[in-house]
Specification:
It is a single chain. The protein has 367 residues and is an alpha+beta fold. It has three domains: 169 residues, no CATH class; 41 residues, no CATH class; 118 residues, 3-Layer(aba) Sandwich (Glutaredoxin). The protein is 46% helix and 17% strand. The strands form three sheets. The protein has a five-stranded mixed sheet, with helices on both faces. Helix 1 packs across helix 5, helix 3 packs antiparallel against helix 6 and helix 4 packs antiparallel against helix 5. The longest helix is centred in the first third of the chain and has 25 residues. It starts with a helix and ends in a 9-residue tail after the last strand.
């Protein structure tokens, strides 16, 4: 039996540590995913939204510590009970997402590895199976080291999680797996290769033919000809989503000039100030934005602001802080993906991201 639990012990412990670390690297991103689950049309737990970041930090730290403890064989029974509770909870969430198509990415491995809802569910089923094997054979999970050493390793792991989490919250994720990482070109990320698979749709046309409804199924959006038939309705369903570029929701909109994305991405020296939502911004960062952007303008950079907030509110902020640049409108979700700082800054050269910084690190961008 001890050999039967050896592999599941490594698999469960290792996967929990890996999954937890990936999310701890970007707890803000994981909190966005929890917010999606808390939404009214999903779990209807909107009262938890203000606490999403705290809950995210607790969950990912718990994942890592439980993974460490099961590998150490430290307090095996209570650890297995908590592991079972977590995996049952995650299995419920992924099944709910898959069955009702409410949240299309569970965020199990952050932006490192995207899984479809059903892939996430079956991953959790496998993890649940291995966890149950561990529970059945818990007597054959010996401690890896003496009790004091196991305690010391657990405490060191906990302190490391706290320090690492504090670091990424006050700066940016150490590892950036998003399409807006440094050295990525935004316009290239938005492009679709000529030979890329195209979306495939199925259309169901309903016609009234001699008083009876007749259904015609096509993969062509063109209006079908039905002799003696009167059109009633049409519905469409996507059979294959085809190729979706890494960046598909980014644009820069001007109230006066419309879409100016290509024009801005052609700039050789561009600074983008991201304030995805004024109501949720850290006000201490605005004075730093003022100091940094004034220096950037003096250094010959074009500076623009990107936000999803009300234009009048943005103008009021600019007047208050005496900003010497204009704000443009961009989708909030895209801005939250671009940088995990509100406000934050990106430095670009013809659409290529040269550098990006949390408002605590503007001084690290060389102009």
């Amino acid at each position: 039996m001890k050999y039967l639990v050896g592999l599941p012990r490594l698999f469960v412990g290792g996967l929990f540590i890996f999954s937890g670390f990936i999310k701890l690297n970007d707890p803000v991103g994981f909190s966005y995913k929890l917010t999606d689950y808390f939404a009214e049309d999903v779990l209807n737990l909107e009262f938890l939204v203000p606490y999403a970041l705290g809950i995210a930090l607790f969950i990912v730290t718990l994942e890592i510590i439980l993974g460490v403890m099961i590998l150490l064989g430290y307090y095996t029974k209570p650890v297995l009970a908590m592991l079972l509770g977590l995996i049952v909870f995650f299995t419920f969430l992924t099944f709910y997402s898959a069955y009702y198509n409410k949240v299309t990415d569970c965020g199990c491995f952050g932006d490192f590895w995207k899984l479809t809802p059903w892939q996430s569910f079956w991953k959790d089923i496998i993890l649940l199976f291995f966890t149950l094997l561990l529970i059945l054979g818990y007597k054959h999970i010996p401690p890896l080291f003496p009790k004091k050493i196991n305690l010391g390793i657990t405490l060191v792991s906990l302190i490391a999680c706290i320090l690492f989490g504090r670091h990424v919250l006050n700066h940016l994720p150490v590892y950036d797996f998003r399409p807006y990482k440094i050295n990525a070109n935004i316009m290239e990320g938005m492009s679709v290769p000529p030979d890329a698979p195209r979306p495939v749709f199925q259309y169901k046309w309903i016609f009234n033919v001699n008083g009876e409804e007749k259904e015609i199924v096509t993969q062509d959006a063109n209006y079908p000809e039905v002799e003696g038939g009167t059109y009633v309705s049409v519905t469409s369903e996507i059979l294959d989503e085809g190729y979706e570029p890494p960046i598909h929701d980014f644009s820069i909109e001007s109230l006066d000039d419309g879409d100016v994305t290509e024009m801005m991405m052609a700039e050789e020296k561009l600074i983008m100030v991201v304030v995805y939502n004024l109501d949720k911004a850290e006000e201490v960062g605005f004075s730093k934005v003022k100091t940094f952007t004034d220096k950037a303008i003096d250094a010959g950079y074009k500076v623009i602001g990107l936000s999803s907030s009300d234009p009048q509110d943005l103008q009021d902020l600019s007047n208050l802080m005496k900003f010497n640049f204009d704000f443009y409108l961009t989708d909030e979700t895209a801005l939250k993906t671009i940088i995990r700082s509100n406000p934050g800054v990106l430095q670009l050269n013809k659409g290529t991201i040269v550098n990006k910084a949390h408002h605590n690190d503007f001084d690290k961008i060389k102009l």
